Structure formats: C-alpha cells, structure tokens
Records
---
Amino acid sequence: MVTTDKGTYSEGPAGPPAGPSLVPGGAARLTLIGVTVALLAETLRYSLPVFVELSVGTALAVALPVALVPFLAPVLRPLLGPRVLTAAGIGGLLLSRLVAQGFGPVLDLAVVATALGLLALPALYESARGLSGVGFAIAATAGLAVDTSLRMFFGTWDAVWQSGFAAWAVCLVMVGVGVAALVRELASGVVEPPGISWRDAMGAAALGPFLALQVLVLSSPAFVASSGWLSLTMAQVVVLTGQALALAFLASGLAVRAVPGGVCVLGGTVLGVCAGAVAGTYALNGKIIVFAVVPAQVLAAWLLAVACRAPLRRAGDGGPIWRVDVGAALGGFALLAILVPYTLNPAHPLPFPNNALSACAGILIGLLASIAASRGGPLPARAPQRAVAALGACLVLLIPTAVFAMSGGEVAASADEKRLRIVSYNIRQAMHDGKLDPERVAAAIERQKANVVALQDVGRGAPASGTADLGVWLSRRLGMTLVWGPAADSQYGNAILTSLKVESSGGGRVFSGEQIHGEQVRGYRWARLRMADGTVDVWTTRLAPGEEKAAHRSAELSELVRAWSGAPRTIFAGDMGVALDGTGLEPLNGTGLRRAAGARESGSQGVFCTDDLVFSEAVSPQDGMVAVTAEAG
C-alpha cells in the first residue's frame, strides 16, 4: 500500500488505479468557484443602485433580512444535506442571473438574487472542501479577472442591463459553464467534513470583505480611471496587472510556508490603509492609485488564501462543520454592511466617511487571516512555471481591452463654431425606472444636436450606477471630449462633454460651513472652449436640493461665484437644487449673470450667461434637461 496526497492505492502490474483526488473534479471545482464569484460580483453591482432610490431607513430595512439569509445554511445542511445547500445557493444564483438577463434587474429580483448570492458563500466552502486556500484564492481571483475583462466589451456597462446579442451571449456562456461545473460537483462524491473549531471556521468570513473591496475598488476599472486620472483603457490594464500578479504570486510558491499571525495583521493593515487612502470623499487621487491598487490586489488574494485554508481542510478535530457555514454567513453579512452604507453615503450622508468602510474591509481580511494563520498548516508550494502560466493566461484577458481601445475613434474637435447649443442635464446616474440605461441619456442629448453638454450626477465607478464609467461611455457614444470632476467622492460628480476644442479646464469641491451637519459634498467643473470668435467658459455644478437646504445652497453658490471671479464670456449650467425662483440662489444676484428665458422650466435646471453672450433659444424637452442656444452679443 502506498499513501499519497492523492489517496491510497495498491501497487500492481497495471500501476496504481485512479484513487480519490484531493479535490474531486478539481478543474470543475475551480471553475465553479470562479464563475460563482464572478456572478456574485455582478449581482452586487446591479443590486446596489436599487438602494440609492430608497431612504436610508428603508434601504437598511431591506438589506438586513437579505444579509441574514446565509445564516439559513446551518439549518439547510442538517435538514436537507450538503448537496441541497450547494444547489440552492450556487444554483439559485445561476438561475437568478439568467432571469435578470431576460426581465432586467428590477427591485424584487435584485433583492432575491443578492440573497441567493450570499447563500452561495457557505455553499462555495462546501463544494471546495479539500481544495487548498491557495487554490480557492486563485479560482476566486481568476473569476474576478474574467468578469473584469468581459465588462470591457461593454465599456464597463454590465451585460445584465442590456438586451443585445452580445449581452445574451456573455450571460449564456457564464451561466452555461457554471451549470456544467455545478452538475459535475453535485455528481461527485461528498468529501467527508473534518471536525472544525470556531477559530478555524472564522476564516470562512474573509470572502465577504474580500469581495467588497473587489467590487468597490480593486476590480473596478472605472474607479481606477476616475481616481487615477487615467484613460479607461489604461485603468483596465492596471487592474488586470494587479490580478495577474496576484495569480502569479499564489501559483509560484513565493507565499511563505509558515505565516505568523502578526504578518497577516500587518498585511491587512497595509491593505486597509491602501483602500482607505484611495476610496471615499477625502481620498488621494492621481497616479498614486496605481501604486495602491496593484499591491493591494496581491495582498488581498494572499490574505484570502491564508484565511480560507483552515475551513477547507479535510482533517482536523473540533465541532460540527456547520460552524464554517456560520463563518461564511458572517462574511456575507460584512459584505452588505460595507457595500450598502458605502453606496448610500454620497446621496444620503452618514456620520462616517466611506474611507472608513473600505479601510475596515482590508483590516478585517487581515484579522481573519491572522486567526487562521497558525491553524491551517503551511501554504503548499507551487512550481514557478505555474506563475508564468498565470501571467500568460491574463494576457488573453486583455483582448476585450484591445477591442475597446480600437473601437473608440478620436474626437474631431471643432474651433470654427459661432454658436453654442448647450444642454444641461442631471442624468441621475443614468438610472431610469430602476434600470441603468446610459443609451437613453445619449439619445436624449443627441436629439438636441448639442455641441456642449453640462451633466450632473455622473458616476465613474460609483456603486449607485453599477460601478460603470458613465462619463467615458457617454463620451465615446456621442463622440465628444470628456471633462469630468468629482463631487461627493472620486466616483460621483459633474461632467462637460463637448465637440469643441478644450483649451483648459479646472474645478474643485465646494465645502460650506454646513458640511458637518451631513450635507453631501458638492463640486463644480469648468472648461474653456475655443470658438470662431474667441473662447467661452462653461461651468457646471449641482447644488443642495430642497427648500429646507437654502443655507447650504447659498454657501455653495457663494463659493462658486468666488471661484468664477467674474470672468467674461461665461455660461453657468447646472442643477440649482430648487426652482429658479426658490431660496438659496441669492448669491447670483448682482453678478451680472442672466438666466435663459422663454422656456418651460425644467425643474431645478438653470442656464445663466454673462452680458457679452446672448441666448437666442431655450427649450425644456424633458424633466431634468434644458437646451439653450447662445452666441456672442
């Protein structure tokens, strides 16, 4: 008899028979983990915008029962068996993704799909038993890399929101591969669970905060593009580079074989500092994002591998295996506890910054890894050739990025225009009837034949718009130059699109003395555009909404007027927060700015200009939009 890590067999003339694998159906299991993680990330992206439409109380009331659903796993396991738990969690997630493609991710479906996705977390640990923590982390990271890559076919606008052939093709391939892997898993023999201590089981909670960081920051090209002031193509390369290095690091054997808990705490702290420094209102931006996101990808994957190896092992002493279900359920609870407040914070400011949430996610992964560090045995070494293979595989994932880069033509900026056709539009994160629909926004702008578009509530990686890059998508769709600036955070702000030549631009945030009372941070953006007879400055902003916020609005507008400093040939366009005869707009009095008249008012949208410009036409074609024609006086 010979015992190996592949099982036990008897030697004979015909050689060893195929013994039970350390990971039954290994390739299928790795695929199942990758597809499940990818679809869960997409489910979270299309579910989060739902919460922004609700009040804080209602959003939390909806999120809490959903976050408790994975705690059904310890009940389902003894009553119906581990196979039913796997089928209900992972199979339910796959089915919900197919239904969402057909009917759209409406509120009820988004809630149900998120609940099933969280139930899939303990199901993943059940289906992955016997897999090393390294293998689990590799599969999860690879799934996220594929998901990130596929999104670039659509300019980060997820396929689930769309109905075309390409969107259906992506959906059917992902779901089909997932179903095949799930069937293989359900048909394989059950791996007997070991005894497990509570300390061991808590490592299963790491997948929740790991996914939260991935959705918000690490696997979001739009986040990297907007925060790092990079092109979306370059941001995608940065994200894939981080994922490739994470995969190569885990596969190469460079991970230390004995990991002290203190090292994990240090790693989690560094990860938390990186995430907190670049995410939220008070965040760093610029090229430093690259040096934060890429190492953070490697750290996050390594800490997940360390944390998960104890819950996945095949031998051990302790209590019942449902403790792992509880650990995974706690991870799901943490996942929503991070994502939902982060999503609500820009629109409904909470008493803490988003930086704290992203930082806590990183630190929590480190703490969970430190608990498991001394309990799960060494990380198995891997051949260096596998690192090369991991890097090579990621090169294939650059194909959608190359297609995206080649499909976007250069903007042919014009400088001989004598008239401006200006549209001011609060696109409200391109959400319409609960659906992310930037095409509807683009079509409405296109009908006005505008050469300058002032936009408000433009998301670039914001959870409220499914982490899509709306600014870049609309710029490419309309063939216009994008000038974008942050407001509430680096993923949520104002934009100017134009077919004119941009000579210079700038902007900033507006911090009033009232900010400490919970009002959202506002911002503004301006661009100096070249016309046939000189230049014109176009400004856009969104002010605090509602009559009750007149003091906030007045303070914001006062700062904006000071920043403008009375420069000539200027147009102000934006969402003033109230009807244009409302309170809080008094700082505009005496500035010499005149409002476009002669059109039915479109809510709080307003367009103003200095005396050296003349409005010749103004219309309000739909709610939230004003279109104005202007020329030199």
Note: The CA atoms of residues 271 and 299 lie 7 Å apart.
---
Amino acid sequence: MSWLESISMTTTVILLFLVVIPILTALFLYFYDKRQKQHAILRNYPILGRMRYVLEKTGPELRQYLFDDDNDGEPFNREEYLHMVMPGKYLNNVIGFGSKRNFDEAGYYIRNAMFTKQNEEMRVDNETLIHTMRYRIDNDNLFSRKEHREEIPTMPWLLPEEDAIIIGPNCEHPFHVRSLLGQSGMSYGALGENAITALSKGIGLAKEAWMNTGEGGLSPYHLAGDAHIIAQIGSGLFGFRTEDGEFSWERLREKAEIPQVKAFEIKLAQGAKMRGGHVEGEKVTEEIAKIRNVVPYTTINSPNRFKQFSDYPTLFDFIEKIRNHSGKPVGIKVVIGGKEDAEELASFMDETGKGPDFISLDGAEGGSGATYQDLADSVGLPLKSALMLLDDALKKHGVRDEVKIIASGKITTPDKAALALAMGADLVQIARGFMISVGCIMAHRCHTNDCPAGVATTDKNLQRGLVVEEKKYRVTNYILTMREGLFRIAAAAGLDSPTKLERHHVVYKDERGRVFPLDNLGESYR
C-alpha cells in the first residue's frame, strides 16, 4: 500500500468518526425522541431539547466554576470554599489586597481592642510542636502548576491544661477538652472508610481534638488515629442495638471501655433534618451492616425519635442510666425552634437537678448527607439566634455552669468560630469543613453513593481516589489553622484566650450602618 493510499484510508476513517457516525447518531435520537411519550420538549423539539437537558445537567458545574461570583452560591460560595481548602493544603490562610466581604450588608463584627495582646501574653500551650506536611508552590502558570510537599513543625495552639474545658466534672471519667474545635457527627456509611480514616488520623495528629461518630455507630476507622471520640447514639440505636432493635447496655459498656471514647451523645435532631437519619441501601455494605446490626444493602430510615423516652423526665432518666453504666459524660444534640424550647429544657434541669453534661446545638443551616428540602430550608432556628436563646435560658435558670454548649452549623473559618464562642458556646464543631479538607468538591451527590471525590461513598472504586496518607495532613492543617485563627482574633480583641470571648465583644451592624451590641438587639430580633 502506497503512502497516498494510506493517507486516503486514514482520512476516510477520520471522516467516518467525525461526520458520519455523529450524523447517524443524531438521526437515531431525533426519531427516537419524536416517538417517546415521557418528555414533551423532546417530542416537539428533539435536537434543541437534547441541548436543553445537557445544559440543565451541567448547569451547577458551569455556575460554580464559570458564572457565579466569588461570593455567590450556597451552601458555600467559592470564597468560603477556598477558605477551607487552602489552609488544609498550604497551612496558610493569608489573603492579599483586601476582603471580598460586602460591608454594606447587615452582619456581625468582632470588636477590636485599642491595645491588643502580644503573642507572648496569650494563654496557650505551644510547647510540643506537631510535625505535619504542607505544599509549597514552585511555579504557577496558566496551563501548569508545579509544587512540592514538605514536612514542617507547627505549633498546636491548644488551651493550657488549667484552662481546659471540662465536660462532666462529676462523672467517673470527665472529658478534658483542650482543643476549642472538633469534628461534628459524620457516620461511617454516609462517608466511606478512607474518608473516616483520614479524618481520624488527621484529627489525632492535631492532638487533643475530637471526632463525633455520627449515628452510624463506632467503626474501626474512627479508631484508626488518635482522635478523641464522642460516640453518638441515634434513634436507630446503630452500634448500640440488639438484633430486635432494642437498646443494648452490653454494647454501651463495650464502647465505654475503649480509652478513645470520651463521651456519649444522644441525637434528638440535627439542623438539616428534624428526624432520624437516612442511608440508601447500596451504601449499606456487609461491614456497615455488621457495625450497625442491620440487614446489608437495605435502605435505613431511623425512627423520627427514640422509643426509649418521649419527654424530659424519661429523657433525663435515660441520660442518667447511660452515665451510670458508662462512667462518662452524656450529652444531647438538639435544634432550638424558639425561646420556649430553651426555657423548658433549662427550667427542667433547674427543677430536677438532672440533665445532660453537654448540649450539641446545631443550627438550621447545618448540613447532612441526605435529607428533605422542606426540612433543611424551613424547620428550626439558625445557629446565631438559637445559641443566644439557649445561653440566656440556661443562665436565667442558674444551670449554665452545669452544662457545656458545643455549637455547629456552617462554622468553617476562625471568625465564625469566634462569633459562636462570643454568643455563648464553650466549643465549636465542624462537619462540612472537614469533608472539604479531605477532598469534597460540593458535588451535592452525598445521598447517591456516587461522590466523585470518594468522600461520601462506600464505592471501593471511587474511594481509591482519596489517599489517606495525603488527606490526613489536610485535616491536621485545617484544625491547626482554625485554632491559630481563634487565638489571633482573641488577641485582636484584647483577650489572652478565645475562651474569654463574650457578647460584648461583638456588635451587629444593620444595612443602614447602625451598630447594636448583641445584648441590645431585643427579643424581637432574636
């Protein structure tokens, strides 16, 4: 065969693939769509209809990467997303030129002091350095980026032992907390084993931080690192149930004997859903089913509430039994719907002398792997309002010193954490910030088991993309940057510790420029 014949044959093949096959495909789809009965647009306009569905399918990605402004988009805009990604990868959250916040909008601001604190004046334990890994950019061009990873000793930014937040001081085994932030509840099953392992190892490497198991039960992957554990008990009793679905006191004692388990949390509700959890059957592998004591590959819907209690007297009795059997602190996870809810809880604690050792307060803006739009959008109060209501009620009834408040709900940066502490929280916990630190790209596919980043999936092939030894350092760096930022904000406010942030350190500016101290906002605003 001559070279001319070879070129001619090659050209024919190329034309076949580039012209003939696409035309035949288009004709097939045209007549197929004309005859189908499901979609009116495709039936009337086959070609344009196909283009419409392609644009509709790719619309979220196009908006996220091309069309949305840096400060547009929910639940997190591009700017907020980068404030979670960059600290994890580069151990740095320094920006240039200026803030992208719209200062004409209403919002909260932390009051700066005329005479700030020096680093050496801060009450912080930075003696034992943490060795982590971060990336350094060597070259950053339009079509390529070259960077290398390096080991770096970093300060831990922990509370000194004498300033530790003590949860359950009267328990046999109190929980001494020296990290002001930890990981909120995320179950093994909602997240895959690689993600949970990376979180456990990264949190453990950061020292003194905790991770909440979520309602899916305590897995070996939660214990893979040296993280403190808050073992959550949901209404489905996963990990704490007998085969017939009753509460197992034997399983509770088994968990309590694990040194890493520091406390137990009874989940009444979370911000994104005022009901029990939901996991699609394809995510319930045999291993997950064994941990939860359920049938493999069966969709799990937890009951809306516990069968073990139905009011405050029976709830408090259940708390007392768990505390006595385990010897460890017991808390509740709640969402506040109004002032009356906070008042009822606080007054009953006052009347009985009983109650939880801590309250995990989730705001309506909290996230979830799977919920319903109506619950996520409109049920429960956002964190800032709920936090002040709960803090006020506990103080009014004289029980504030008996219980610690752990706040959660879109707390992803140090300034947001500082606001929560000032509004009444003792500690803060984060879920989606940690998900993003291990690779989440906000694809909004958590409920499908098709997470492209290998985070919210139990699919082995997709999980291979998440390398634990890489991502664990992102988690560590995110925690360290958050903790350092809290101390930096405290110093700017003239305080030697973030634990001393109070409401008078925050003001609210409305859209007209008027400034109000938080205590003067009034009941109508809250």
Note: Residues 418 and 486 are 6 Å apart (CA to CA).
